[in-house]
Amino acid sequence: MTVLDPLPAHLVDDLVRRTLAEDLGLAGDLSTDAAIPADRWGVADLVARQAGTIAGLDVALAVFAAVDARTSATAEVADGDRVDVGTIVARVQGPTRALLTGERGALNLLGHASGIATATHEVVDAVAGTGARIVDTRKTTPGLRALEKHAVRCGGGHNHRFGLFDAVMLKDNHLVAAGGIRAAVAAVRERIGHTVHVEVEVDHLEQVPEALQAGADSILLDNLDDDALRAAVEVVAGRAITEASGGITPARARAVAATGVDVISLGWLTHSAPRLDVALDLRARR
Amino acid sequence: MTVLDPLPAHLVDDLVRRTLAEDLGLAGDLSTDAAIPADRWGVADLVARQAGTIAGLDVALAVFAAVDARTSATAEVADGDRVDVGTIVARVQGPTRALLTGERGALNLLGHASGIATATHEVVDAVAGTGARIVDTRKTTPGLRALEKHAVRCGGGHNHRFGLFDAVMLKDNHLVAAGGIRAAVAAVRERIGHTVHVEVEVDHLEQVPEALQAGADSILLDNLDDDALRAAVEVVAGRAITEASGGITPARARAVAATGVDVISLGWLTHSAPRLDVALDLRARR
Amino acid sequence: MTVLDPLPAHLVDDLVRRTLAEDLGLAGDLSTDAAIPADRWGVADLVARQAGTIAGLDVALAVFAAVDARTSATAEVADGDRVDVGTIVARVQGPTRALLTGERGALNLLGHASGIATATHEVVDAVAGTGARIVDTRKTTPGLRALEKHAVRCGGGHNHRFGLFDAVMLKDNHLVAAGGIRAAVAAVRERIGHTVHVEVEVDHLEQVPEALQAGADSILLDNLDDDALRAAVEVVAGRAITEASGGITPARARAVAATGVDVISLGWLTHSAPRLDVALDLRARR
Amino acid sequence: MTVLDPLPAHLVDDLVRRTLAEDLGLAGDLSTDAAIPADRWGVADLVARQAGTIAGLDVALAVFAAVDARTSATAEVADGDRVDVGTIVARVQGPTRALLTGERGALNLLGHASGIATATHEVVDAVAGTGARIVDTRKTTPGLRALEKHAVRCGGGHNHRFGLFDAVMLKDNHLVAAGGIRAAVAAVRERIGHTVHVEVEVDHLEQVPEALQAGADSILLDNLDDDALRAAVEVVAGRAITEASGGITPARARAVAATGVDVISLGWLTHSAPRLDVALDLRARR
Amino acid sequence: MTVLDPLPAHLVDDLVRRTLAEDLGLAGDLSTDAAIPADRWGVADLVARQAGTIAGLDVALAVFAAVDARTSATAEVADGDRVDVGTIVARVQGPTRALLTGERGALNLLGHASGIATATHEVVDAVAGTGARIVDTRKTTPGLRALEKHAVRCGGGHNHRFGLFDAVMLKDNHLVAAGGIRAAVAAVRERIGHTVHVEVEVDHLEQVPEALQAGADSILLDNLDDDALRAAVEVVAGRAITEASGGITPARARAVAATGVDVISLGWLTHSAPRLDVALDLRARR
Amino acid sequence: MTVLDPLPAHLVDDLVRRTLAEDLGLAGDLSTDAAIPADRWGVADLVARQAGTIAGLDVALAVFAAVDARTSATAEVADGDRVDVGTIVARVQGPTRALLTGERGALNLLGHASGIATATHEVVDAVAGTGARIVDTRKTTPGLRALEKHAVRCGGGHNHRFGLFDAVMLKDNHLVAAGGIRAAVAAVRERIGHTVHVEVEVDHLEQVPEALQAGADSILLDNLDDDALRAAVEVVAGRAITEASGGITPARARAVAATGVDVISLGWLTHSAPRLDVALDLRARR
Hints:
CATH superfamily of the largest domain in chain A: Aldolase class I
Distance between the termini of chain A: 32 Å
CATH architecture of the largest domain in chain A: Alpha-Beta Barrel
Structural class of chain A: alpha/beta
Oligomer: homohexamer
CATH topology of the largest domain in chain A: TIM Barrel
């Protein structure tokens, strides 16, 4: 059972609270409160209905505790683990009302994060042995960036910058406005902290030497074909990190990785991965 | 230009604030603040890179105003409109810094919502002429339910209940715990308000008459094949709303609609629709 | 001891937090912190000073735990129970400071909710045997709608819609703007979800047939006298739910109920019911 | 037109936001969005349906602006003004949708605050000429203390302390725990700031001299009859502020005031005053 | 071990949450999560590196519990206690990750508050025996007023008013606008509650009699030299509280106190006191 | 007039709101509301009472607009500018009440941030010409990190990492737990994103080669004397960034800079810099 770095506790609280507030509103769970006696106790399994990679289990299980502090949950797998159809992911017990009321919120969190982890894992598998890292982008679902980037890590991927605040990425508009790559990098270095990484985005192979000379820490090779990528890697020769980006599908990832780039970024992982189907099976008890 | 009901203003504010807080953190946009002069002014177009249906335009444009109150935006299409590759969706002008700083947040909101609207529209198109409504579920992305349900409406779909609080859905667990369909519906009716709709979920055709007699307002026919759906519709004969559900893919929707059901619900619309690709093209000005 | 559906936990947290923030400010309880030693322990009873119906006990007791996690509370009655003068409603023990600091906040919540439950109960009693339901309105105290609607349920009443979001009510202004009852109902049905209830408000008996034909789920009979109400009930003949509304005092409720209407709504329950007097009696211990 | 001190802007924002969030939820105003065209413009009057004293007008009008920034409002009276049946309190214009969507929230705030102001005014009138002040207590509705205390000022009353944080009130439990009045006041004086007022609550006339000697700034005479109040006033002889409290009804206020006490406090003003009926009359325009 | 009045629990929660949110962001503690195994357990001491007075210990220790609920902490001293170089202030045990992740946030809170307590204590010591109180001002660090005023109490000082809301201070601008001291005090007394203290600020000895006649509860003697202060104290002769203010350094406090003023206020305590150096020493265990 | 990167708008809003909420509470500015007529209009200057460097001017001026939207402000200098005693920093006009009510909150923000900028500037001046950067630490005041780091930039300093989330700093405890510098760096590199900077803290000169070989991006030389710093710089020879840290006073900074280190970090800048004295001078107008 892998142990990954968890989400900070204040983010878990926020996610759980928003999830429940949205689903319960002012009136709560009308169906369950009316149909299920308050003193009924139950056990429920979270069961995978598809094979995939789990992510977000802690935050999903925290939903039940937030509905009713008398529930308790046991994780049977951990974030980052692979599951098959039928794998029991976790077991939750407590008042039956709480199990049913928390079900959808918990599954929405778990299914969304696990869908991203599963998609990531497939791409990571596809490039296995090449040395290329699969990384995410800032193309995340608003309000869920921390969870989604955690899910990428669960799938074996790595994180690109978390936002505009923790690394510099100079794109075409920045470069033009600043008067070219060298001027842009120089202006940025003058102002930012010494721990901030500077990446320069290039569209053409010819820009690579200039980015190198400007002192970029990494170079984003945007929408280059495989030959150009290979050439860029040669030019760079380890003096900067090379990142391939731009419409890279899971199917194409292997070929891109074979060009020798260090990093492959895919927005698709976080903006379009389908969820993983996980269900809650209630087993009545008392 | 269609005019749909907008998101309530307090939800727009919340979405925009969360989106920006997540992307800007404590340090803001390091790249843009360093590379772009503060007095540079610009105009940018939001341009569709894929054909689809737009949703979430208001909230996306509100991102720029939240970055800098001196920006102004003009929508060229409206939520619910179809766009082609290359359609200009909106034009934003203001300080170039604000255009670049707000870009990703705005596009993440717009692309996510429009992806759902586009997916919904395809299914709505597929069932055109049948009289069946395409509706969403509670399988939404945590924190985004209002936006996602709005996107479904933009795509020509309709909304199922928004949460546990605004309609009753009696599923297997409720029915068993309450002692059967009639007892469950009776218990619920006794407690809930007179404006609350009661839907009963059935797995077998044989349960339909009992649900009818119990007085269900609608009957969810879960995972029935087309023959069973057709039979259920006949049995119900307009005395309740019939809803088909359970793993209905866009491809299968037409056939399901042809069975005569009133409503078809698809979790896929909100939990797995890929985003619509919209980009920001900056045109320098001053 | 009745067990009613509780308030969702996140609402309880919010109410308690707001209540305490307002009463403690930045400096806390100056009197108690200065006059009562920190290690003094005590037991306190919440005692009814008036006969009535209890509501909001859970949220009231949660105040003490929020002041100091070392307090514990035992409810002696439950929400919905009738109490007499002198009935012990609950017992709380813990640091004496916490009992005194939490006292007013807890009693304000309990007294306010129980006042509404008590008022509701009196009206419910008045119509006993008629089959008419007593329901609330949206005329609630800002910020307290969930608690107040819970209190109405505790008093034996039922809830009308919780807000603008969970049912449609077409009033005069809507009907005129939309071009009459039929057009209005049709426009609304076209757009809203299939689980949304549609009520039409009418001021005159003559409008009832049109509302029926338009397919209203319920008809609000606004400010009709008893004869008109009786006539309306006959016209409707069970094809829609009939609701009497408009300045109905508790004293008049019985007569209104005798007209045969299904539902009687009273804004007075939530906007003008006086609080129920409950006090805290501290019994020193250590 | 009186100009009273307004509520701080951040409190107005909070009240408006909570009011609207509660009423609009995730789906907004289903009825209005479906029945009223988005481009319809209107004018509405807020009209008093009962005679009384206005309070909370600013916060009520802010509701419409929060629904739609294109609305504008003109107050025709001000907080603290008396109105008769039919008095136009304010006029609001803007999109008809916004007028209807904001109506109930605005009226709930206005009616609640004005109800308190009206009740206060009646008691203030009853004691006119006696020199006694009518003041509120901490028996307020949770979440609304600032608005309710503002309403008391609008009615011509004055505020007692706002919470546990801004003045000391030593009640029986404090006095016993601290070892008597003198010890309690001494302990408190030693710790609190020099700007903090110290009030001592006494149940018997005999305790008054001790409270005076202890140096109380004011003495709360709890549940004393009129003779005892008169005697207490004589004993105090202006050396402390005298406050009568404990179940004082509006009807009894005049007699209490005649005893010569400086201050009469009534919990009833804020916990049980019925709302003032104000309605919105929409006048279509465009 | 002194027991001071603690910060209200909701303020502790807020401070801890803001502190951690700011330090952990979306990604958490990258260093610790990568370098320290999740199952490593440890014990850490908070150790004073400077002599001083402790304040804020409760809130500092609450940081660790908020990072991971499995940590536990034991305070070895209490707020208000004096410590020497090397004094162990508290001991915390739990997952090593939590100890390291919470370290900086806890120390920032503790060091800031203890710095203020230490500075206060020095000034309090300097005036020992004179009867003068050392008090704070509203010149606090935004967001930290409650903690900073608590720290002043921990250092043996007292609190002036907490904000604009809990006492009146009439400064030059108020006095001029209102038409002089008497008019200003009269206008204020007419409106404010009977528990609100009124202080008048004077710049010249000649204003003191007018302030006294106006009925000021206290008189702030702003920037008077020691002779003038002494003269003012004589004039006042105990009929109001005298407060010296205006650029009073710790070095000058003794001389000011010797003039006989009741209260000496120093903005410096909260706006410029250097922090107290406290460190965390980790002792590995498992 | 320098133009620095501003604080993100959502942080400005938060700071302003917290500042005002803390100062105004529920009752607002009792003194000003009672003494100053509502229709009085005024102009006020923010004037430096000490020479120094300005920071936080935008957020300070935003306070007045938050008190009353009718105020307007004109900055006469910009963040980062030097001011002398008497320099007018900004001019604000609007209702006199708003100027007085916002005064203290605005000055607390401005004085705190400018104090840090001033302190930073002095140290930056001291090392002028050496090529060493002056940077801050995470020893900031809780809740104010973004403002304080902005203030350091205004003073000519640079920012170290903003939190635990945006760069790795491996300290003694991490190194020991991970099994030495090489193992620790390797473990971290394996998990973190490729844009994350890795700094290693060393206490002894002998550790420098190991840190270099481990591939640290920068090396924090903790508490080394000047000779050791000079030797470390020679050993590193530009292969990593060198940072001197540990009790470096402004007085010692020049000597440290002369050793050739790239970066000098001082916790003192943010945890102990005294505020800059700025005052508000009101000039009555109408």
